[in-house]
Amino acid sequence: MTTPQETRRRLPAFAEVGLGLGQIVEGELPGTVEVLPTMWASGSRQPMISIAATWVDTQLGMLAIQALEPRLVVTLELDVHLFDGIDGATSLRTAARIARAGSSVVVARMDITTAAGARVGFGHGTFMAAPDPTKTMPSIAKALARYQAGQAPLDEPFARRVGCERTAPGEAVMPVAPYVVNGTKAIQGGLLTATVEEAARSADPGNRPLAHMHVRYLRPVRVGPAVARAAVHGGIGEVDVHDSGTGALALIGTTHAATS
Asked: Which end of the chain is more exposed for a tag (fewer CB within 10 A), N or C?
């Protein structure tokens, strides 16, 4: 008999990060986030920065899909920044808009605020159309519908949900599994940042939550597992993520620990 846990593992983890999206109106896409304790960085009351990266990647990616449809959209870069005021917030609002859109590259930005309107974070993303024009995506209407129908709650810690484990100081591993891959059968970009966060925090003697993260995507992780290795100096981390199945460098990232 299939257990509820096994059934959930067949569903995409990025559909459990609390993000709900509205409609794109005059170039802006609004969203809401329900923050649960299972999303907190251990030892804190602030969301894991990799969860925030998943919000940013998903919401800004919708704008890129609209701008470049029907071409397949891939993420090139993400940066995410969380302020102290986000600690303990249970309800957030997000607002995304395009900064610049070309024929094959889109740059977008997103604000994160409390329900009362206080700004508690922001993020940016750069996206491009896949070079192969025969690779396409569902329409923007179908893409948005997934985030307008309600989501299942995240009922276990995020790192555990995506299968990310700290395997040594400064090292974290995530398998390529059905619940973390996107339509191209690669680990979804936002979820992959869990390895960056876990590796950086485990390399930090203080194991401090992260306030800032910047990542550049070089190659998809399709074989896996993804292995992140971090070096941290004075709270600033440098992280490489490889696809251990191919040996290829898939992502390079930088992190900065929260100071409070």
From this structure: N
